[in-house]
Amino acid sequence: MKTRRCNLSRSCGVKMLCLFTVTLLAAAARGEVEDDVVKSFTAQPGGKLFVGLDLGSIEVSGVEAESVDVRLLRRVRTSAGRPSAILTNHIVTIAQDGNTVIVRAQSTGLIRTGWVGNGPRLQVKCLVTVPRRFNVELWTAGGNISVTEVNGKVNARTSGGNLRFEKIDGTISGRTSGGSVTVAKCKGTVSVRTSGGNLQLSDIKGDIEARVSGGSIQADKLDGKSVLKTGGGSIRVTAVKGRIDARTSGGGIRLDVTEQPTGDCLLNASGGCITVALGAAVGVDIDARTSGGRVLTDLPVNGTAQTAQKKNELRGKLNGGGPLITARTSGGNISFCKK
């Protein structure tokens, strides 16, 4: 292992088994310290990265390389003479075990985070590049997590931040207690949950299970079987092809179907309206009922007008029929219209 000061960039061609960099830039009057720890390991595709932080954000990117490059940035702002002690009490361990790279950072004492008010402050960010085909397991008690361009299994947990997954080819499992979740341009099974934020899904080829306790869900271009549930927001789904099970306890639902779907759609809203917009050539069976409103349509279901049926129900076939769209709400209207 060699120790030296350096600036890490993506174009850096130096590949060392263990590279350690520490840079201290202190302004005595302000009591600010920046600490930059860098290590690089030779690793083969198919390995695993584990990152566990008691605070801070994590960013992981897949690249065409046979190495894992880790950069841990820490910044402290406190009274003069104390920053070094705070860093000393924040233990960082970066090591390799076979084809697994392990990053841990944990405080041995009480360290306040953020920049407002008095007392010590510590900010942490972990930046990692891995071979494109790699498995990733990430955990932080207080920060955002982002994973991009990785082919493998991705497992991410945060107690207080956002989750973002983009261009992942593999299984995704994500949980956050206090942030939003974004999943875009991914292939494979997706399972995500958030207790305090919104959810955005786009261009996903694979089955999805998404649950939100207190936010809305927006989804676009879903090909697989999708289960979307929220306890306190609306659901908007566009350009759907696969099977949809969408449920909300505190908002409305809008479903846009521009092409012929390959699976049934179940829409359930406890306290909101449901709108279904269908392309001109889409053929489906319709089963709609509301307890606290009306079912409205300007589409030729069974070739007859909706007025021939009960005002709060609609059953029949559109364009010869097809996959079943079931819509239920207890407190609003259900509308079928042209897209």
Strand and helix layout:
Layout: E1 2-3, E2 19-20, E3 32-42, E4 48-53, E5 57-63, E6 67-77, H1 83-88, E7 90-97, E8 100-107, E9 121-131, E10 135-140, E11 145-148, E12 154-158, E13 163-166, E14 172-176, E15 181-187, E16 190-194, E17 199-205, E18 208-212, E19 217-222, E20 226-230, E21 235-238, E22 244-248, E23 253-257, E24 265-269, E25 274-278, E26 284-290, E27 295-297, E28 313-318, E29 324-329, E30 334-338
Parallel strand pairs: 1-2, 4-8, 4-10, 5-9, 5-11, 10-12, 11-13, 12-14, 13-15, 14-16, 15-17, 16-18, 17-19, 18-20, 19-21, 20-22, 21-23, 22-24, 23-25, 24-29, 25-30, 26-29, 27-30
Antiparallel strand pairs: 3-6, 6-9, 7-8, 26-28
Task: Explain how this protein is built.
It is a single chain. This protein is mostly beta strands. The chain contains one helix and 30 strands. A 14-stranded mixed beta sheet has the order 3-6-9-5-11-13-15-17-19-21-23-25-30-27. A 14-stranded mixed beta sheet has the order 7-8-4-10-12-14-16-18-20-22-24-29-26-28. A two-stranded parallel sheet has the order 1-2. A hairpin with a 2-residue loop joins strand 7 (90-97) and strand 8 (100-107). The chain is elongated, with a radius of gyration of 25 Å.
What would the average pLDDT be, to the nearest integer? 86
Strand order of the largest sheet: 3-6-9-5-11-13-15-17-19-21-23-25-30-27
The DSSP helix count reads 1
How far apart lie the N and C ends?
A: 63 Å
Shape: elongated
Strand content: over 45%
Low-pLDDT parts are 1-29
Total number of strands: 30
Radius of gyration: 25 Å
Largest pleated sheet: 14 strands, mixed
